[in-house]
Amino acid sequence: QVQLVESGGGLVQAGGSLRLSCAASRSIFSLNRMAWYRQAPGKQRELVALMTSGGITNYADSVKGRFTISSDNAKNTVYLQMNSLKPEDTAVYYCNALTSELLPRNYWGQGTQVTVSS
């Protein structure tokens, strides 16, 4: 099992920055990948950014150049640095972990609210 605890959400003005943190209960090296998703009211949950265990990153087109996913393996923590925030970035952000077993399992954090005011 993997427990994920997010923090760092809040209210920020457009153009501002926030950094989200996701602390995992076990080594993130042991996981296939870590990712951040978000879900805005009335919309489906969407992938924002991911990082594989090999360090490969990928981003949604809507956040490329503004958001950066990174990790501190010693702290078993993944971060999402969000710059140049826009009102359309407003959503609940969820941390996600995919395990590396033969039958991979998905784990989710509880979510953290990010609100960007115009």
Topology:
Elements (H helix, E strand, L loop, with lengths): L3 E4 L2 E4 L4 E7 L6 E9 L6 E7 L4 E3 L7 E6 L4 E6 L8 E9 L6 E3 L3 E6 L1
Parallel strand pairs: 2-11
Antiparallel strand pairs: 1-3, 3-8, 4-5, 4-9, 5-6, 7-8, 9-10, 9-11
Describe the structure.
The protein is mainly β and 118 residues long. The chain has no helices and eleven strands. The strands form two sheets. Strands 2, 4, 5, 6, 9, 10 and 11 form a seven-stranded mixed β-sheet that branches. Strand 9 (91-99) and strand 10 (106-108) form a beta hairpin. The model has no long low-confidence stretch (mean pLDDT 96).
**Average predicted confidence as pLDDT:** 96
Number of helices: 0
Secondary-structure content class: mainly beta
How many strands in all? 11
Largest sheet: 7 strands, mixed
Cα Rg: 14 Å
Spatial separation of the terminal alpha carbons: 40 Å
What letter string, H or E per element, gives the SSE order?
A: EEEEEEEEEEE
Kindly state the percentage of residues in helix: under 10%
Shape: globular
Give the oligomer, counting copies of the same chain as homo and different chains as hetero: single chain
Tell me the β content: over 45%
Task: Catalogue the unreliable spans.
Answer: none
Question: How would you concisely characterize the structure shown here?
Answer:
The chain is mainly beta and 118 residues long.
